[in-house]
Design a protein that fits this description.
The complex is a heterotrimer of chains A (430), B (219) and C (564). Chain A is α+β, with helices and mostly antiparallel strands and 430 residues long. Chain A is built from 11 helices and 14 strands. The model of chain A is unreliable at 318-327 (pLDDT under 50). In chain C, helix 17 (443-469) runs antiparallel to helix 18 (484-514). Classes of the chains: A alpha+beta (430), B mainly alpha (219), C mainly alpha (564).
């Protein structure tokens, strides 16, 4: 009765479930017994006909008092003992554990492996190996919670905490932030991928992306980042106005800020605006749209972006690498093609729409197909083929409540086949 | 203490308040003040606990930071407060003998000592402020300023500030007692306010006796 | 049955002109009253207003959680509402809750005193409460209007409703762009009010008991209130200094809890819970006392194991001081301290269990009647069983790692505080209503409201236990789709619950104002002192100071070996 814990997926999870279920059974037993006794007394000794009957003046019973002091004490000691014993297991990390750094930041989880590989919101670990997570925070308190592994630990700024577990099942598991941390606390999610050891090894050593970056010069690296992070979704290079200011001839320009002051754009301002974008927002542009990149970009990355931005005199309009999308197109399913478009830097859908449920600039694509959305005009709509198509071609027409009208229309940039592929892809994002 | 003259309640509110006989009233007032002092100790206890924790974190930094405090001024202030406690005790003795003039004189001494304490404290604080040892100043908030110093001076200002606030409150309480003494309200049968006020003042003194070595000497 | 009140002219002649409601007359006499009964009523009305306000906030929160994604508000507004719900419920409603209302009204009556030890201090603590309440309300202001006004308000620290959660955890509370200074300031001031009330009660119980009212004759409600008062007096200063430090840190940049200034956020949690754990006993112990009064009267039986019940209150109060860090098992405290605090926590379970056993045993061989106070008391026993047993999960170290900061904790907390303290207050209001007003309320409606309360409450919070077991974290604006059905049940339950409370309280209010049905001065034939005086009680409680010759629970026929 009352077994609701998620399926155990770590080595010590069954132990914890055992003591948890024992408490459940004892609780049900005692509650039923005591409340049952109360109800029995209430019925058996109810006052009939509105008149009190004689009652004995029973003052107490030392025997009973002793029993119901001693029995709960013994039960408590028993439960406390196993709670503590299993807790010690949870705190004693095996020597061969794989250590991964976990950093919480409003409102995402970053992971870094010992070989320097970094991921965000995606934690990949091998099955049957002890995993130690060393947890820290860049801003406020967070807490890293893996229900299926039965582990949780706060991320405390200025301190390192840890937890460990040995996953016993392959699969994808949900991670939550459980310490309230502000606005998007409930969107501070991550996924734990437990994979076979071989696959983990392949994944961990696949540094091709990073290796490529290392070979590039600053401006090229900046360009790569510009597309990789989806900056191009909001910042044009040709002077046209998108969601954010255009980057053409940005350095040296004088911008009017939303608080009325003026700001000459220099390297310092660009750096600040990348790391903490909402501090000084250019007038007429909405605040709180761009995510803060503090902690996500290294100093070198920022230098690269600055070098890239400095080079934008309008001559080099961001090449829309259309041809790339066609690569291998013949071998791909429609959904794969759609994903390709989603990840294509030319469109940079991923800049604003997550696929992991986290809220970025636009609604997440996770589970979007078939979802009921409330619109800003108060009506609601089921996300179907027609709505998606319309939202791509003419995004301003039906805005989901809680979001702003800032997506550029893709009329003329995507054809019907592309849109069909995107829809197929969205159906697979669950 | 068998009889407590009715003067005890003459200037007290509506008849409803006369719900205790004077003996009970005296004991209740004293018990109440002791309880209140317990809450004050716990209030400062939080600060002492915080100080202990941070001193443990940053032992040598706290030691160095304490050298920025002027222990001579702290020592003078300790003597001033000790003397004021003595005069407060004398005021109680005077009240028990019904000598309102002596009550007034001793209370005045006590209150003056409180003033001297605050003046010295003011000079200490402003000197620190001018040296940039104050939260919010540019130097203090600067990156090169030791983190542990920030904790030390943060606690220093909180502890001495809260204590200074208690000195002011105690002076106010004693002044209220002083006004009663001006109307010759105290007698061998009724001296509860003097005793309760003096009790409070002793606590204020006592807290300083712990603060002084902790902040100025031990670091 | 022995009469305990020998100098008892108290019950004989009814003096309607000098009952506390009529004497003295006039609005001014009410706002400047030093009569503990009137102060109790002032508190009662004030806290019920905040119960209503915070209740509406709770309904807004639940409505937003009806569906995954956005329903009626955005994340920031949601965060404000759950914070305000918690902060107002805790600091303005439930902490003053039973002690300041029923405690004020009953404590002197029950011990045969004319008033509390320091009546004017009592009034002062009420106005300090009002000051704190005003500060809390000011903290709700969202600055709008001309820029100059906004700048002015920002200079006063008024930058929008608080969104930190009622726990004000640093460093979020140091960074949050909201009126944290005002809300924590309010909590500080309210704490001061609570200290003064507690101090007053402790002195009252020690010094003002009527002749013959020895410690082992005190009603269990007095014992419970006394234990509560000790916690109020000794725990509250610590949260006071904590909030003061938080304010200093926000206002001046003093580095105590902010890691960027060398501070330690975990220390804030220690300080905060050093108060805020005992404070749950401030909330719930008086409710234990209420139930301990009601069950004997409605069963015509002495409270079973009187000494155990009374000492259990003190034991809970004492142990309650030693377990605070069980709120912090995963917060980065050392494993050794986690183990200690887990073990210590189990020892609170024992006296609590003892109390439950005693209440139920009191009903054995009784003559039980089921008016609404008894229904609330029996409902309380069930709800508190659930609260207590789910507390065992949270005390168990390895298991709490999973449940910490999930909906399981939310549900457990509400079973303790709403199922315990609020239901206790409802029981008390229904039980002592005839004493406070000399009127009778509509019993049928009261029972009907009780059903709604009971059903609605369980409908709201039982699903939350399941949500917690499934891993749903608390304070979430949005949630994964699989949690939706249970959230919907919970939301519907909260509406039912709200209707129940509204019906119950409206019934009482209506009866107090308009009912023509006079209640007898002792409608339930209780033996305790407050029922021996007229209803409503005289301004000075008793005509003559009562002399107590027997304990409060002399119900039933003496049986062999049944001496006290």
């Amino acid at each position: 009765m009352f077994r609701f814990l998620p399926e155990p997926a770590s080595e010590f999870a069954p132990n914890i479930d055992w003591i948890n279920n024992l408490i459940t059974d004892l609780s049900v037993f005692f509650t039923v017994a005591i409340v049952g006794a109360m109800i029995y007394f209430a019925i058996r000794y109810r006052r009939r006909d509105g008149v009190d009957h004689a009652t004995p003046r029973i003052l107490g019973s030392h025997t009973l008092e002793a029993i119901w002091t001693v029995v709960p004490t013994l039960v408590c000691i028993f439960i406390a003992y196993w709670g503590i014993a299993y807790y010690r297991d949870m705190r004693t990390v095996p020597a061969d554990a794989i250590t991964i750094d976990v950093r919480g930041q409003k409102w995402k989880w970053d992971f870094e492996y010992s070989n320097g590989k970094k991921t965000t919101s995606e934690l990949v670990v091998p099955v049957n190996k002890p995993i130690k997570l060393v947890i820290s925070s860049r801003d406020v308190l967070h807490s890293f919670f893996l229900p299926s592994m039965r582990v949780k630990k706060d991320a405390v700024p200025g301190q390192y905490t840890y937890l460990w577990f040995r996953p016993i099942k392959e699969g994808v598991f949900q991670a939550f932030c459980t310490e309230y941390c502000g606005k998007d606390h409930s969107a501070m999610l991550a996924k734990l991928h437990v994979v076979s050891e071989a696959e983990f090894g392949r994944w961990l050593n696949d540094r091709s992306e990073e290796a490529l970056m290392a070979k590039l010069g600053p401006a090229e690296r900046g360009k790569a980042l510009f597309q990789q992070k989806g900056c191009n979704a909001c910042h044009s290079l040709d002077g046209s106005r998108l969601v954010g200011p255009s980057l053409m001839k940005l350095v040296g320009r004088t911008e009017k800020l939303s608080d009325g002051s003026e700001q000459v754009v220099d390297e310092n301002y660009i750096k600040e605006s990348i790391l903490d974008p909402n501090k000084k927002v250019v007038a007429t542009f909405p605040p709180n749209v761009m995510p803060a990149f503090a902690g996500q970009l290294s100093d070198e990355d920022v230098d690269g972006l600055i070098a890239f931005i400095r080079a934008q005199d309008g001559s080099a309009v961001a090449a829309a690498p259309k041809a790339e999308a066609a690569v291998n197109a013949a071998n791909m399913t429609p959904a794969q093609k759609g994903e390709h478009i989603y990840r294509d830097a030319a469109y940079a859908c991923f800049g604003c729409h997550s696929v992991d449920g986290s809220k970025v600039v636009g609604p997440t694509f996770k589970g979007v197909y078939g979802r009921q959305e409330k619109l800003t005009d108060g009506s609601s709509v089921t996300v179907d083929d027609a709505y998606i198509k319309n939202s791509i071609l003419n995004p301003g027409a039906q805005i989901v409540e809680g979001f702003a009208n800032m997506m550029p229309p893709f009329q003329g940039r995507l054809n019907d086949d592309d849109i069909k592929n995107i829809i197929e892809y969205l159906k697979t994002v669950k | 203490m068998s009889t407590y003259a009715q003067t005890a309640d003459q200037e007290q509110g509506p008849p409803h308040v006369h719900h205790m006989d004077p003996v009970t009233a005296y004991h209740a007032a004293k018990f109440g003040m002791w309880l209140f002092l317990a809450t004050e100790v716990l209030l400062f206890g939080g600060l002492f606990a915080a100080f202990a924790v941070y001193r443990w974190y940053y032992l040598s930094e706290f030691h160095h930071a304490s050298h920025h405090l002027n222990w001579q001024l702290g020592a003078v202030n300790t003597l001033v407060l000790l003397f004021s406690s003595f005069t407060a005790a004398l005021a109680v003795d005077a009240a028990q003998h019904g000598d309102n003039a002596r009550v007034r004189k001793n209370l005045l001494f006590t209150i003056c000592c409180g003033c001297i304490f605050l003046v010295i404290k003011y000079f200490e604080w402003s000197a620190k402020y001018h040296h940039g040892l104050f939260p919010g100043t540019a130097e203090f908030n600067g990156a090169e300023f030791n983190q542990a110093y920030k904790s030390f001076f943060g606690l220093y200002y909180c502890m001495t500030g809260l204590h200074a606030f208690h000195v002011i409150a105690g002076m106010g309480l004693l002044f209220w007692v002083f006004r009663k003494a001006q109307r010759n309200r105290f007698s061998a049968d009724y001296y509860t306010p003097v005793e309760v006020g003096a009790l409070y003042w002793h606590l204020v003194d006592l807290i300083w006796i712990y603060l002084f070595p902790l902040l100025y000497l031990v670091g | 049955m022995s009469s305990q009140c020998t100098a008892g002219t108290c019950n004989s002649c009814h003096d309607d002109d000098h009952n506390y409601l009529k004497y003295p007359k006039g609005f001014w006499s009410w706002v400047t009253t030093v009569d503990h009964k009137r102060i109790g009523l002032l508190y009662l009305f004030t806290i019920l207003i905040f119960f209503f306000v915070a209740g509406v906030f709770a309904l807004l929160v639940r409505t937003e959680l009806m569906h995954a994604g956005r329903d009626i508000m955005d994340a920031e507004t949601y965060n404000m509402f759950f914070t305000l719900h918690g902060a107002i419920m805790i600091f303005l409603f439930i902490v003053p809750g039973i002690p300041a209302t029923m405690g004020n009204f009953l404590l002197p009556l029950m011990i045969g005193a004319k008033d509390v030890a320091f009546p004017r201090l009592n009034l002062m603590s009420y106005y300090i409460y009002v000051l704190g309440a005003i500060m809390a309300l000011v903290a709700l202001i969202r600055p709008i209007g001309p820029e100059g006004l906004q700048k002015f308000l920002a200079g006063l620290g008024l930058i929008g409703p608080v969104d930190t959660g009622w726990t004000f955890y640093a460093p979020y509370s140091l960074q949050s762009g909201s009126s944290v200074i005002w809300m924590t300031g309010a909590a500080f001031v309210l704490g001061f009010s609570s200290i003064l009330t507690g101090l007053n009660f402790v002195v009252t119980v020690h010094k003002l008991r009527a002749p013959g009212m020895s410690w082992d004759r005190l009603p269990v409600f007095v014992w419970a209130t006394y234990a509560t008062a000790i916690i109020q007096t000794l725990a509250t200063p610590v949260v006071g200094i904590t909030l003061l430090l938080l304010i200093m840190e926000r206002a001046m940049g003093v580095g105590i809890f902010n890691p960027q200034l060398g501070g330690d956020p975990v220390l804030f949690e220690h300080f905060f819970w050093f108060y805020s754990h005992p404070v749950v006993y401030i909330m719930v112990l008086p409710a234990f006392g209420v139930v301990g009064e009601i069950i004997p009267v409605f069963s015509r039986k002495p409270i079973f194991g009187y000494r155990a019940v009374c000492y259990a209150s003190l034991a809970i109060a004492f142990i309650g001081f030693l377990v605070w860090a069980h709120h912090m098992f995963v917060a980065g405290i050392s494993d050794t301290s986690a183990i200690y605090f887990s073990a210590a926590t189990f020892f609170v379970a024992v006296p609590t269990a003892v109390k439950v056993f005693n209440w139920v045993s009191t009903m054995y061989k009784g003559s039980i009647r089921f008016e609404s106070p008894m229904l609330y008391a029996m409902g309380f026993v069930f709800l508190f069983m659930v609260a207590g047993t789910t507390g065992i999960y949270l005390a168990t170290l390895a298991v709490d790692v999973f449940y910490h900061d999930t909906y399981f904790v939310v549900a457990h907390f509400h079973y303790t505080i709403q199922g315990g303290a609020v239901i206790g207050l409802m029981a008390a209001l229904h039980f002592w209503f005839p004493k406070m007003s000399d009127k009778m309320y509509n019993e049928t409606l009261a029972r009907f409201a009780w059903v709604l309360d009971f059903v609605g409450f369980n409908l709201t919070f039982l699903p939350q236990f399941v949500l917690g077991m499934e891993g749903m974290p608390r304070r979430y604006y949005d949630y994964l789709p699989q949690f939706e059905p249970l959230h919907q049940i919970s939301t519907v339950g909260s509406y039912v619950n709200a209707i129940g409370y509204t019906a119950a309280l409206m019934n009482l209010l209506f009866a107090a104002l308009f009912s023509k049905r006079k209640a007898p001065s002792n409608p339930y034939n209780s033996l305790s002192l407050e029922w021996q005086t007229q209803s409503p009680p005289l301004h000075e409680n008793f005509k003559e100071t009562p002399v107590v010759t027997d304990w409060t629970y002399g119900y039933g026929e003496p049986v062999e070996g049944g001496s006290h």
